[in-house]
Write a structure and sequence with these properties.
The protein has 211 residues and is α/β, with parallel strands linked by helices. 44% of the residues lie in helices and 20% in strands. Strand 5 and strand 6 (78-83) form a beta hairpin. The structure holds guanosine-5'-monophosphate (5GP).
Length: 211
């Protein structure tokens, strides 16, 4: 069996990528969403092993030194990283694994796994981003401003991604993302196992030299 696709998703805070991931994984069963490790404290509605594996700094640093992470980054004074074992295991099973991580980590993944597909999620406009951040009603003016500033900085990295995904209509966005990943399955480098098998099978029929 061919291995699954490794898809890395990043996007501005307020791009709706969390909702998008939930919708995609509930509608299609070929996806496995990686659960990251972090040193940040759990939010009230978060559960160990569901949103994150919550670690102390010491535990996290041990994971780094044991080479248990595909990538890790510091984000707002906390560590975030992707555990290797789950990702590899799911890809071997043929699942398409999704990492929802920030830009630094995404670029690190691309360096280690050039075949990974990098997808950047954005609202249709900056105005809409501001509207979504304000509408949440959970953040102060100051936090919204700092998220918008950060989005401005992050925008310069968008061109390093493979695909841009504009999140306007949620369902359309789910379909677009599903199509992007489906296309990756057709790439030659994604089909090494198939190609090797085909060659073996053809060898059985081979008689003498041809071209
Ligand atoms: P939050 O604290 O809001 O859950 O996440 C903060 C940021 O960390 C988000 O941009 C999220 O995508 C990113 N993030 C979550 N897990 C990982 C990870 O394993 N590695 C990296 N590099 N970033 C992550």
């Amino acid at each position: 069996m061919n291995k699954g696709v490794l898809a890395v998703v990043s996007g501005f805070s307020g791009s709706g990528k969390g909702t998008l991931m939930k919708a995609l994984t509930s509608q299609y069963d070929n996806y496995a969403l990686s659960v990251s490790a972090t040193t940040r404290k759990p939010r009230p509605n978060e559960k160990e092993g569901r949103e994150y594996f919550f670690k102390t700094r010491e535990e996290f640093e041990k994971m780094i030194s044991r080479d248990e992470l595909i990538e890790y980054a510091q984000y707002v004074q906390n560590y975030y990283g992707t555990p290797k074992a789950y990702v590899q295991e799911q890809m071997e099973k043929g699942k398409d694994v999704i990492l929802e991580i920030e830009i630094q980590g995404a670029l690190e993944v691309k360096e280690k796994y050039p075949e990974a597909v990098l997808i950047f999620v954005t609202p249709p406009s900056a105005e809409e981003l501001k509207r979504r951040l304000t509408e949440r009603g959970t953040e102060s003016e100051e936090v919204i401003e700092s998220r918008l500033n950060r989005a401005y900085e992050e925008a310069s990295y968008m061109k390093q991604y493979d695909y841009l995904l504009i999140n306007d209509d949620l369902q359309e966005c789910v379909e677009n993302m599903h199509q992007m990943i489906a296309k990756e399955h057709c790439k030659i480098q994604q089909n090494q196992v198939f190609i090797e098998n085909m060659k073996k099978e053809l060898k059985v029929f081979k008689k003498g030299d041809s071209i």
